[in-house]
Fold this protein.
Amino acid sequence: MLRLDFDNAFVRELPADPEQGPGVRQVQGALYSRVQPTPVAAPRLLAYSAEMAARLGLDEAAVRSPEFAQVFAGNALLPGMQPFASNYGGHQFGHWAGQLGDGRAIGLGEVINAAGERWELQLKGAGPTPYSRTADGRAVLRSSVREFLCSEAMHHLGVPTTRALSLIGTGEDVVRDMFYDGHPKAEPGAVVCRVAPSFLRFGHFELPASRGDIELLRQLVDFCIRRDYPQLAGSGEALHAAWFAQVCERTAVTMAHWMRVGFVHGVMNTDNLSILGLTIDYGPYGWVDNYDPDWTPNTTDAGGRRYRYGAQPQVAYWNLSRLAGALSPLFADVAPLQDGLRRYVEAWNAAERDTVARKLGLRECRDEDLALMDDLRGLLHRAEVDMTLWFRALSDLDDAAPDLQAFAEAFYDEHKRAASEPEFLAWLSRYRARLAADAAPTAERQARMRAANPRYVLRNYLAQQAIDRAEQGDAAGITDLLEVMRRPYEDQPGREAYAQRRPDWARDRAGCSMLSCSS
Ligand code: AMP
Ligand code: MG
């Protein structure tokens, strides 16, 4: 049966916009507006996450009931749901952008599950809100498939993330100009139900601060601590400082995970950074194929490459500095905020050392191991080597003297492979000498490495193939891909095709290596 228990703390405890309805407006002195999802023509369940459903206490019969598709497309509400769109601002590409808000996301309420966990439900693409500005409040199937799959893939990779419960086709078209070049096209629409303990973003705190509404800011900070950081004790400035340090630490840990698995977010604006350090807002994200710190999948950012792979840890720090600035009116002195930012640097350094140790299969990371890893990364970049395949092959090394044959699949360019072979062999012998000093048995090392170096990641072209099929009416490609991504660290016999390097045809194809913000 489709039943959920709600405890909607956000709308109960925080001030609401007195005005109702979706009319676009500036909303002052309030953190959200009540708004109803706009019904769609013909909701159809395309995919769902069995793990997320179970976590919420929904069994397969409930998910497959016609009522589920109605509710999670926005056509009906369950008892206890109180829909709203939240109000936030943000720095976009380095500039303050003012009020943004949930332009096409509608919160439904906070589920309390049998284990007592709080999970907020949010529909993405459920129609206009007061924050939709000039856009339509809808989402296309392609971006919804990408958000649905990547949320769950990241979860199974062990990366902090918002989750996805369901993907529902709306039976309606949405018009988008995919590359903003004057070629608008009708595309199938969809609604994703995403799930997280909290959808608060840095931008939620920046907006009241930017308007000088310090009481609203304080109210939101205290609410966030109470609801999202209940483990923190104390009061006043000391509590606020401890909280900010925690936000910094969580953000650092998430950055280290992104770098470990080769994930590029693509649009790290402050409205897209979660106060819980969760990966949030899957737009023009991508996965590194050939290792390249300068790569970004986001064509909208192709000029400055602000959000390129290698810059993400620094960008997160910049974003935390904006958050610190927003929080500063709550502090008599900036020292506690500076301490928090220092906490970010420390936590990042510790997490990066941990990443190096885990990816290389070492029991501990010494200073010289950072150099060993740096040298490897330089080689992978110059020789155009697939990051995921390289590290997986490295994890499989046994005690025999290695040659480059074991890594053949990881190379994109035969000439570069031949030219760089001596350097790779030299690096491998350095690495083997280091392993000998580490003294872990081979099997133990391999197990540690296989748990840190995934065999399967959601390569852009894999998602695009599932999208192509779904756009033709066949959603099975989404389910198949989700099934593979549920166990990314295991070898899955028969599914080798999902672990291959990016095929040549996908190198410059829309959706495979180039994505825009249009979604
Ligand atoms: P994004 O770049 O997707 O993070 O979105 C930035 C802002 O634009 C947020 O306030 C979104 O809610 C809003 N937005 C993006 N796409 C749409 C859309 N199709 N309709 C309404 N608002 C949107
Ligand atoms: Mg966003």
In short: The chain has four domains: 9-199, 203-357, 364-450, 460-506.
